[in-house]
Amino acid sequence: MSSDPPGADYLDAIFAAIRGGAAQLTAMKAWLGSAQRAASSSSWRFQFLAAARAAHRRAGAYLDETEERLRRLGPDGQVPAPLDRLPRNVAAMRADLRAEEQHLHRLETEATARREPSSADARGKRSAS
Questions:
Q1: What's the pLDDT score for residue 40?
Q2: Furthest-apart CA atoms within the chain: distance in Å
Q3: Cα distance between residue 80 and residue 64, in whole Å
Q4: Where is this region: Disordered (predicted)?
Q5: I need a labelling partner for 129 at 20 to 30 A (CA). Which of 42, 69, 95, 100 fits?
Q6: Total domains in the fold of the chain
């Protein structure tokens, strides 16, 4: 990144990063919805979860970039309005991303548990053979 004083291009980059983060967060939610609707034993479910995980990583990277660019604008109290609202908005997006990450983790755990037979089931099947 350049250490030049912020200009129109710099502000455009901030807004582009915010839009990118929002788009990836929306994509993550859509993939999670698809995973939730997929049959528990469906291989599609794992593909949806993998896509959600990838969108989560991209959203986090966009938010990291946004936060870094906002820090370069100056301390919180010195950023002019309406840009002074952006750190709060990005923090809200970050909180939403964390909540969706927990949702993703729960769905991944459920999908993995359903895919792997329990040890008791495995023992029962072996002794019946």
A1: 76
A2: 74
A3: 21
A4: 100-129
A5: 42
A6: 1
Residue-wise pLDDT for 38-85, tens only, equals: 987 788 999 999 999 999 999 999 999 999 999 998 887 788 888 889
Kindly state whether residue 98 falls inside one of the protein's structural domains.
Answer: yes
Report for 81-85, 97-101, 113-117: range of highest mean pLDDT: 97-101
Please, what is the angle between helix 8-37 and helix 86-115, to 10°?
30
pTM over 0.90: no
Name the H helices within 1-129. 8-37, 43-73, 86-115, 119-128
b/e code 90-120 from CB counts within 10 Å (16+ = b): beebbebbeebbebbeebbeebeeeeeeeee
Domain limits for position 24: 8-116
Classified as helix, coil or strand, 64 is: helix
Question: Does residue 122 belong to any structural domain of this protein?
Answer: no
